Amino acid sequence: MASDFTQQIRQKAIELLENGTVECVIGYETGSDGIGARPAFIYDAAEADRLVFDNTCTHNLVKYLLNKKGKSTAVVVKGCDSRALNLLLNEKQIERDKAFVIGVVCPGIVEWGWNKRSQRLQKRCDWCRQHTPVVSDFMVGDPVTEQPPAAFADIVEAEAKTAEERASFWQQHAERCIRCYACRQACPGCYCTDCFAESLDPEWVGIRIAPAESQMWNTIRAFHLAGRCISCNECERVCPVKLPLSLLNRKLEQKVLELFDYKAGMSEDAPAPLITFKKDEKLGIAE
Amino acid sequence: MTKTLSKNELESWLANILKERTLVAPRRVDDLTLFLPVHSTDEIAFDCSNTDLSPKDWFFPRTEALFTAEHKDDDIEITPAVIEQETVIFGIRPCDAKGIAILDGPYLGDPADSLWAQHRAKTTMIGLSCSTPAPQCFCTSMGGAPYDSSSVDILLTEVDDGYAVETVTEKGETLIQGVELKESDVSGSVPSCDAQVPAEGIAEAVKKAFDDPYWGRLADRCLHCNMCAYVCPTCYCFDIRDRTEGGKIERLRTWESCQSKGFTKIAGGHDPRADKGSRLRQRFCHKLLYFPEQFGPLGCVGCGRCVVSCPVNIDIREIISDIQELGAKVGEGSN
Amino acid sequence: MSENSAPLIIGFLCNWCSYAGADMAGTSRAAYPSNIRILRVPCSGRVDPMLIVKCFQEGADAVLIAGCHPGDCHYNEGNYYGRRRFALLKELLDFMGVERERFRIEWVSASEGKRFSKIVTEFTNEITSMGPRKAG
Fold first, then answer.
1. pLDDT tens for residues B167-209?
2. Pick from C50, C85, C97: CB nearest A163
3. Within-domain flag for A215
């Protein structure tokens, strides 16, 4: 199946580049360990045979479209990535007619690291109920029927602890955070040219690498993604100190679903929950 | 005949060190292995090949106050930071130790960085040579070796019943005083790191390939996530900013990375490295060209951490190889 | 953390309704504990989650946001947006160990002076019995 996907993607890339439909095809190629994939930027049809698709294609390539504004670019997207595409379209960060979307029905991505690969699926693939891209110009693979929505078991488990235990848990993790901002850099939803964390006045976060500042950073980043995070979980994957960032994002995802019946990135047009309101809604606030 | 120490004797020695100094060693925390203070030798991860973050934190902390200032009567009193605690780092690998030693170049140049100098003076390193280098290691290609003792105070090498001990410096002598070493006949092959990275003459090649569009293409996938700089034992860029708390001002120095957007932004708004390609190129020019030009050794010790951590597989070994090829082509073209 | 273990409460009051309401509490001599430090904002919808999290970071034991009743916002809609935002933030903070009870949102109109004083008194008592914020 995977090799067939690879062939289809390569063919399409050759076609798009030869016809001049796009200047660049953003896909995946095999990395230096011969095991895991890495993002590949193909500018010439002759190089299209670098492209592959397998179950190590973890990266969310949609982020790179933000570096290609105004240029016709093709991008390979899995289910989660396609939701990121809708997010960026919804927020008017990219133009639909400049992006050629090669959708891939995702087989699930395994946990892997440099020079090691397991057969176990990533956590986010267990949670995923959108293996078929929600937007595409060319689809590779046949759409799948999804299982019923997953319960947020990880959130329920985390909430079973007392407030004191929770505070202590996050404090410990804030001590590990080195504020490299890799999470932000990997996230397609984090594209502000002037991130709040780098604001000098007001200095919301500051440069000190210490728990108080790191708490502020992680809490607010999660909040800025409320109703926007599409659960690709790249933030957690890239974190050098393995912070459980998915817990924060998924807590908000759970609440946004519960309070506003909204799932990020499912359509280009749906109004985002934090920029709309219903006059009579009951949200547990001052009632 | 070699001086040796059994595993038990090593642990007692370390336990004694613990009583008077901070003992830092590789320790497992969840899925990570980090150089952290230990409170007992049980906490030491003796079997790790290397830690996830380098030990440079112990000489160049991720956050450090350079001085504090506060109003005292009608004047301002400035209190420079003083490092008083003696620290021993156990289990540091020759590559990481070399990384610390080469940073003496920029940090002990004139004028010397007082905090770096203090950390160096107050820290003793008990190195551990590498019996089995990891797949990402390439120290020998960068001028180091898995058994290189030149940058540590004491070097231990695993042998049959314990460790062979090489005391390198006076500081090492002082630390090991009182520890009884046995004279043993040890056999065993010298560990080797077989990775072949063509680093010979890389500085010239980088210079020649400076204007090549290679850098822009490579940077296409770079996320500028700063991870390479933060895991690296030889990256030493920092940011300085003042922080006020309760009427006291601290001048803080923290890690920064040339990869982050805005690293080179200057007053007026101009940014000479605004594009991804120039920022990425800077990393490799610094390590492979500017650093050796200024200080002698290459600015990379071959620990492989960047190779393992980069989320998009920007691999310095591959880059060195590519640049050698590109540099050679430039050589051919010109005349 | 506050010096004398009395809770430190930060209040964001919207200029048009709740700040005026607090003012009315003052003029009617409806006393309330002075643990609350009031900040006047143009609209409850202006209150940025960063401000709230920063308050907790800097040592506040509780945060109160008071705005116009939904439908009465001086800027028509500000409090509707705020309501959604605060509903989510409350949950996130609770998840991270800052109990829901420490972050309170109330709609107080300009004529509800006595009610404002009652709210603040209740809130202060509740937070006092909860004790100072733990960790983080």
1. 999 999 999 998 988 888 877 667 788 889 999 999 999 999 9
2. C97
3. yes
ipTM, two decimals = 0.93
Q: Which helix (H) or strand (E) holds B204?
A: helix B202-208
**Residue A180: CB partners within 8 Å, gap ≥ 6?**
A240, B225, B226, B227, B230, B257
A116 to chain B nearest CA, in Å? Answer: 10
Residue span of the structural domain in which A113 resides: 2-140
The pTM (predicted TM-score) of the whole model is 0.93
CATH number of C9-130: 3.40.50
CB contact under 8 A, A222 and C94: no
Q: Is A285 on the interface with C (CB under 8 A)?
A: yes
Alpha helices in chain C (DSSP H): 18-27, 49-57, 78-95, 113-130
Domain ranges of chain C: 9-130
Does residue A41 sit at the B interface (CB-CB below 8 Å)?
A: yes
Of the candidates B46, B25, B326, which has an alpha carbon nearest to the alpha carbon of residue B198? B326
Please judge whether B311 and A209 are an interchain contact, meaning their C-beta atoms are less than 8 angstroms apart: no
Residues whose CB is less than 8 angstroms from the CB of residue A247 and which lie 6 or more positions away in sequence, other chains included: A154, A155, A158, C95
- What pLDDT does C2 receive? 44
What is the C-alpha to C-alpha distance for residues C91 and C104, in angstroms, rounded to an integer? 12
**Which of A159, A223, A251 is the mutation pick for testing C, counting most C CBs within 10 A?**
A223
Is residue A129 in some structural domain? Answer: yes
Residue A2: per-residue pLDDT: 64
Q: Domains of chain B: which residue ranges?
A: 2-184, 202-333
Of C57, C83, C135, the CB nearest to A283: C83
Per-residue pLDDT reduced to its tens digit, B62-115? 999 999 999 988 899 999 999 999 999 999 999 999 999 999 999 999 999 999
pLDDT digits (tens, 9 = 90+) for A20-56: 999 999 999 999 999 999 999 999 999 999 999 999 9
Residue A286 in any domain: the answer is no
A40 touches B: beta carbon within 8 Å: yes
Indicate the residue of B63, B135, B223 with minimum beta-carbon distance to A185. Answer: B223
